[in-house]
Amino acid sequence: MLKSKTFVKKTRSGGVMKIVREHYLRDDIWCGSEVCTECKQESTVLQRDACIESSLCSYPHYLIPDTNVVLHQIDVLEDPVIRNVIILQTVLQEVRHRSAPVYKRLKDIVHEKEKHFYTFTNEHHRETFIEREPGESANDRNDRAIRMASKWYSQHLKTSETGADGLKVVLLTNDQGNKQKAEDNGLLVYKCEEYIKSLIANPELVDHLALSNDEKNEITSSKVLFPEHLPLSKIQAGIKSGSFLQGTFRASRDNYLEATVFVQGEGEDSTEVLLQGLQNLNRAVHQDVVAVQLLPRDQWVAPSSVVLQDEGAAKDDNAEEEDEEKEVMTSMIWKPTGKVVGIIKRSWRPFCGMLNVAQIKESTRHLFTPADRRIPRIRIETRQAATLAGQRIMVAIDGWPKHSRYPNGHFVRSLGSAGEKDTEQEVLLLEHDVPHQAFSQAVLSFLPKMPWAITPEDMVRREDLRNLTVCSVDPPGCTDIDDALHCRELENGNLEVGVHIADVSHFIRPGNALDKEAANRGTTVYLCGKRIDMVPELLSSNLCSLRSNVERLAFSCIWEMNHKAEILKTRFTKSVINSKASLTYAEAQMRIDDTSMNDDITNSLRGLNKLAKILKKQRIEKGALTLSSLEVRFHIDSETHDPIDLQTKELMETNSMVEEFMLLANISVAQKIYDEFPDCAMLRKHPPPPPSNYDILLKAAKSKEVEIHTDSAKALADSLDVAKVDGFPYFNTLLRILATRCMMQAVYFCSGMDSDFHHYGLASPIYTHFTSPIRRYADIIVHRLLAVAIGADSTYPDLMDKHKQSALSNNLNYRHKMSQYAQRASVAFHTQLFFKSRGILNEEGFVLFVRKNAIIVLIPKFGLEGTVFFDTKDKAAPNLVFDEEVPSLKVEEHTFCIFDKVKVTISLDASNVQHQKIRMALIEPVIPGVSVPAPDVGPQAKKPKLDR
Amino acid sequence: MGNVVQRRTRGALRRCPFEVCGNMAGLELLSDQGYRLDGRKATELRKVQARMGVFAQADGSAYLEQGNTKALAVVYGPHEMRGSRSRTRHDQAVINCQYSMATFSTAERKRRPHGDRKSTEMSLHLKQTFEAAVMTQLYPRSQIDIYVKILQSDGGNYSVCVNAATLAVIDAGIPMRDYVCACTVGFVDETPLADLCYAEESGGVSSLALALLPRGGQIALLQMDARLHQDHLEALIEAAMTACKGVSKVLDEVVRQHLQEVSVLTGE
């Protein structure tokens, strides 16, 4: 081993510092090839027989891609055809530095055995390490290091005599200069495109190729559409000096010419900067981290209320067409407005969507429309346009040159034909980043062996509660029952109430593959007619599910209460229970109401119900909010899986009974684990919304002359309770729906990383999730913490590490949010299917929001929201006057305000297969030229079934 | 409103413009292939070089390099108590340690006054270490002074001091139970890393310093400031002990080499 020293100069906070680091160069780093006899390696990665049919290289060869090839052509490298690749450490480090997602994918490939990717640690190798020469840039040095390593490999393989089969290495680079130098050094070097195109047997790989910048695409005119992005160094300097702001770019869903940049300040201190117009958006894509510059204050604008979609024709370069009308702002709510000056980090991922086949038949360039409206359309090159038309495909963005209206991308894979339920579901899951593959063998290997039974070892630290009259109450058709309840009178006259939660942490041990998979999935996702489990079905629907009349392991929270529902004693224990009945909400309600029934289960339920009512009253007195959102349930045809009917979810007393006790258990557990682990308890908080969030609610209430107080949760709850308008029974619900929209998202966090624990909605000083470990990973962590706290289990390192906990809660928050979105998208998709089969319907609805050119209408019967546009492309727009203060919209003679009752027709607009949408048109009030005559509704006979 | 924006703008400045994930500077301390930043494997020590008897004036002295960390140790004694006689122990010698860092020892030149908290603590640790190793009962009512100075610092200051001081004590001819060898170990990606350099130490790694009497396997000092789960502690101590034994081999060679040179000089 040889030692050398490298001297590095580094600037930190302005000063120049000399940093000395040692560097040990080794001669025990092996080449990883099967052929080699010199290297004393234990296992080899690269195969002897590295043949791939190529018209350029007729001999077996290993590939060495350079950094840019890896970064841009990772899709190609991922293809199973490409094997026997040497990834140099230099390349790996550069990739890590430049793109985290590509780095992760590269690492995944390296770990895959069949791919035969070998990582060669050239930077520590005595013969391939090179020092940076004076005047040489870091990039040039790295390129030289790559050439050096390639050279070493070619010589190394030549000397090992067994390489009689003429094994060679091929360097892939797209950099002309690098290629030239490599050729001068006598290396075999090809451009990536050249090489891939030479693969005779696999022409489909060419479509995966990313478009590279250096070969100019003739289609893009030389006209510069966008201002140049600033280099990173200038951005950094600008951010430091305060002239630029750094933030996450969020495109608007409704208006493709508008976006906001969320600038995170310290703590709660953050701003949003508004961006308007293509030039100012300057090629930023949703979720990118960008640098923005604020415009002078006299150019500040308010967010436009126009709903605008990019309907530009399939050809590009029609930027003029979408010229934004510069409207005179009457309002005072100007927002800080800015423009994007540079991109700090792209967060491009493969996007799902559909191909818009170009009009010209032979063209290989096509536009791709992503399913997510916030993503711009992407230009791709493919030869398979005919087959891909009508399919859902995935496309990755490669770059966005400044003279191109759209970003350039390449085809990744096809998901299936559009409109089919499976394809759409796949799209939905991919778009929301829901891990939905089947569980791997490694994960399944950690499941308990069947037949499973409780062993005496299981009983050591458990209480035997099998004799208790425990029962569960759930929605109909529920197979993952994670909670059960009991209530009985004690001898001293007090009541004992128990909440029993499935003991999932008994089966999922920390750190194994099963645990990791569950932690990654974070939550079970419920779609219409489909459930994406967090844990394998054996656990979720069988061993952990607290079904009736079987023995199940549980984690119990048992209180002693008096008849005023005051808690006298709280106790937690692991236990074994035997549920006596699995009831649905309706069944439980029936038992409670049926005075003739007097068995143990019914009495237990009555006791629970009584206590729950008191608990609820107490909670509401403390200021807990009761909010409303409309949820719909589909009746799904058992054979075709098409939705045949839908109804809004009904709430019964028993729903709230179960809910009360779950809340109580969660609060008790939160307190306990926080007391025990002040640093690393996983809790859930719900921050109070900033006052400005309530504007819309206040304005809406004021229009009906109702006063809403938002000073505190209590004030809000009280004023919502008294808010009533005569002859408008639905008003209160509408108000509550609006209030829900004002709220912030509740989040998980680690108690050691935050000081504000308050749960606004529940008016509880501390809260966590304990009661659904089968479908939420946070609950599993809470179970483990609680088990340690009561001495029923031991800790493990990650549980006590607040940084890891905090990283985990971030993932859980992300997964929860995404699962909610996926759920909503699934409902929307099924609503469309439903309306497809029902044809056109006339319904009554209420105006929920008023926009500049449209009103958003809620149909309570379907829980459906839709937009009624007043300006359509093909018709002359009616006279619209928008008043933001009220807010109201005057269409010709009629003025729309929030909460107005309207009548609309609902139909499915299938003109765009990708974005099928529910189209609503006004019937009542009748406005000439705007409203449509009420169409005859076809299947009248079926309708009464819906009315309930 | 303008106010608010202004204030927030300033708030944004103070933050680092690029998000850094994981440990500081996002350095990958241990690659998938098992190499550390400087090319060592997890259990490998830095190169240790040492010389004994560098000063004629002192009773014992030694210079030791462990990678880029360099220390000079000087021993005076045993001699009779100086200064306050109240500290005299009638049954054993008192060990007096003093640790200091040269102004030029780190990347930023900095004046380091004596008696700051860090060096006082380090002095105390050295004292405890050597009280466990030196056979102090042989020199009642006397005092042994050990002075250590860090000339260049690149992580593992404590262990380098201990190793240098051991050689100096041996050079002074003071009997010890065994060499005291020290080493730091850090814990990264479920793997213990031996002999951390500065880049690794400052990378947010939980590290542990251990001084060992290798032959008997007794621990003279164990020090750890960071948080570590109990489950990992054993593996970490195990790795530290292996590393210390590695150091002791090198020190033993140095001593034998030195002895040979000296005996050649004296003509025996």
SSE order of chain B, as H and E? HEEEEHEHEEHEEH
Mean pLDDT reading of chain B? 85
Beta-strand residue percentage of chain A: 25-35%
Q: What's the assembly state of these chains?
A: heterodimer
CATH topology of chain B: Ribosomal Protein S5, domain 2
CATH architecture annotation name of chain B: 2-Layer Sandwich
What's the number of domains of chain A?
6
Q: Provide the CATH top-level class of chain B.
A: Alpha Beta
Poorly predicted segments of chain B = 1-25
Secondary structure category of chain B: alpha+beta
N- and C-termini, Cα separation of chain B: 90 Å
How widely separated are the two ends of chain A?
Answer: 83 Å
* Alpha-carbon Rg of chain B, integer: 22 Å
Strand order across the largest sheet of chain B: 1-2-3-5-4
Helical percent range of chain A?
25-40%
* Unreliable runs of chain A: 214-221, 312-331, 938-948
Give the proportion of residues in helices of chain B: 25-40%
Describe the structure.
The complex is a heterodimer of chains A (948) and B (268). Chain A has 948 residues and is α+β, with helices and mostly antiparallel strands. In chain A, 28% of the residues lie in helices and 25% in strands. In chain A, strands 18, 19, 20, 21, 24 and 25 form a 6-stranded mixed beta sheet that branches. Chain A has a 5-stranded mixed barrel with strand order 8-9-10-12-11. A 5-stranded mixed barrel of chain A has the order 13-14-15-17-16. In chain A, a hairpin with a 6-residue loop joins strand 26 and strand 27. In chain A, helix 18 packs across helix 19. Chain B is of the alpha+beta class. Helices cover 32% and strands 26% of the residues of chain B. Chain B is built from 5 helices and 9 strands, in the order αββββαβαββαββα. Chain B has helices spanning 2-13, 117-133, 157-171, 198-201, 230-266, and strands at residues 48-52, 60-66, 69-80, 94-101, 142-152, 181-188, 191-194, 206-213, 218-224. In chain B, helix 2 (117-133) links the parallel strand 4 and strand 5. The longest helix of chain B is centred in the last third of the chain and has 37 residues, at 230-266. The N and C termini of chain B lie far apart (90 Å). At the A-B interface, strand 2, helix 3, helix 4 and helix 9 of A face helix 1 and helix 5 of B. Chain B: It comes from Sparus aurata. Chain B: Keywords: Acetylation, Cytoplasm, Exosome, Nucleus, RNA-binding, rRNA processing. Chain B: One of its GO terms (biological process) is U4 snRNA 3'-end processing. Chain B: InterPro entries: ExoRNase_PH_dom1, ExoRNase_PH_dom2, ExoRNase_PH_dom2_sf, PNPase/RNase_PH_dom_sf, Ribosomal_Su5_D2-typ_SF, RNase_PH.
